[in-house]
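Predict the 3D structure for this chain.
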Amino acid sequence: MSSAVNLARWGVVPYITAWSSEETPPVAVVVRDGRIAYADERAEDRDGAGVLWTRIGFSPGVGVPQFKSVHFLRQRRAMRGLLCQVCGARCAKSALWMLSREEYEGADGPWPAPVMTAHPPVCPGCVERSARLCPHLRAGHVVLRPRRVSPAAISGVLYQPTRAGLVPSAATIAHNDFRTRWLRAAQLHVTLEDYDVVGLGAMVVSGSGGSSVDRGSGRQGV
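Done. Predicted structure below.
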């Protein structure tokens, strides 16, 4: 039987990290009222927009942290409530986003092109710690302060109804796509718009255009 562990043993465990005790239980997915549903569906299985979410246990601190896995519910809470993905505190207007070199340079274009991400924000107090401890940021990252954050997409398992039954496949679709009724959601994505680049970590260039960043103004140079 699992018992609560001393978090100091693991160092910093981000708020959105899944723990080994938080299992995804097997569920029967059926078609009901023109959309997928759980055979034993409960009210908490859907969000306010009616999207069905993947079930997962909730017992942070119990077992072993799964650093490569994101807890679906805490990721959604962090995105919608602007909670720091590291400490779980509410960021509100101080919310910052840390993107790896690969993620930022793979965006639609350099500043000021909008950037879509599934990573929740971080609070100012967790920026340095994140840069130091997060493996995917060590090869280079940017810190962005957006003026607008809007819903963009949802990732999960998309079910295709066929004569032989439901055929599942991994997918990411727009949050307002009509196919969300066939999606078992796992993560939210947002679009960051009208942002300033306020920090660079081990990066000389930023954006898919390869233009340099003015380190003094935090704006992308030309």
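The chain has one domain: 7-201.
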